[in-house]
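User: I'm curious whether this sequence folds into something compact or stays loose and floppy. Could you predict its structure so I can see for myself?
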Amino acid sequence: MADAASRLTALAEELLSEPLPVRIRAWDGSESGPPDAPALVIRHRRALRRLLWKPGELGLARAWVAGEIDVEGDLYEVLDRIAGLLWDRGADAKDAVHPVRDPKVRAFARGLLDLAGPWPPPAPPAEEVRRRTGPLHTRRRDKEAISHHYDVGNDFYALVLGPSMVYSCAYWQDGGTLEEAQRDKLDLVCRKLGLKEGDRLLDVGCGWGSMAIHAARHYGARVTGITLSREQAAHARKRIAEEGLTDRIEIRVQDYRDVGDGPYDAISSIGMAEHVGSVRYREYAEDLYALLKPGGRLLNHQIARRPERDEDAYRIDAFIDAYVFPDGELAPVGRTLATLEEAGFEARDVEALREHYALTLRQWVANLERHWEQAVRATSPGRARVWRLYMAASTLSFEHNKIGVNQILAVRPLDGGGSRLPLRAREWTAEADA
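Assistant: Here's the prediction. I'll summarize afterward.
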């Protein structure tokens, strides 16, 4: 099996009809490709069996999580070069590497088969979600999906997120730190909601309690936080007790569909709606509308994707679905706005924070890499590899405008149509700019 790297490079370049922009280092010690380029390291030929068994993203993801594929050099650069090679040449190029009838694809598969070693393919890594069949977004299935993502150890998330324990896009100023940017994001949400002493706030998808603590401590709100993650809830309650805020904050392990103690003056939903799913989004919007007082405000902070020409062709990303956010779905911001207004809300403001999320993710990746050994001990080598790849790839998606994130401020109108919002929009920016 001499010079596996040269054979792999030749096969890939024949398939793609252009030179590879990365070096290949193979399990036999051979190397091929531009000497000054970052390297894609194939540590074991099992990776090829995974790719043959599950062509495309899922096969590559399994090999990455299992540690059979790695990179030498800058991870962002490797991902950027590979993405540019495969996906940024348009739909025709993307489709050209898939059909089995394509002679180039068949030749590529035969070449991999010669290098891959004996069958059968290895089992998927333990970190891959094991899901039951059946309808999407039932209460039970959603709870299992949330547990897969969030119940991986509070210590692990503390290493990645830092002391703020906020797992959503921060709000940056030049020269600021991650902690300052997360504090500013929480404060921005409170000001957009117009919170004041004694207001009842429902925090949907409350995470580790950071939004609830900020709203209670700085604005005097009485907060109910809900999450489906028992680990998050336990950590949030501990923090709240340490802050002396148990008289102002209640944390529940509860589905948003089961909240029945409205009306609330305001609702925050920060990074939760991505889990709701298209089949439930209208129900989600209607439930939140019913839980608000007339004149009450909703702040919906949500990742959005670019619209598809054919929306029926949208598919959940295979790697993210299998390893990160099972059953998670992204929608274009226009569809989200339309659904909220169909439920009765009046949309009053939309703020795009796409660049802010790229900056946030780069900080999380740096935290993970800086604390790598601790992170591996806190969860597993495969799980740490999942998060490193997921966050680095997401960084590039935000930077290249493949996905975005938006804060939508909506109001439940008064019976006569009023909003109780000020005549001048975005009064909340005055304090931030001062």
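Summary: Residues 204 and 232 are 13 Å apart (CA to CA). The chain is about 45% helix and 15% strand.
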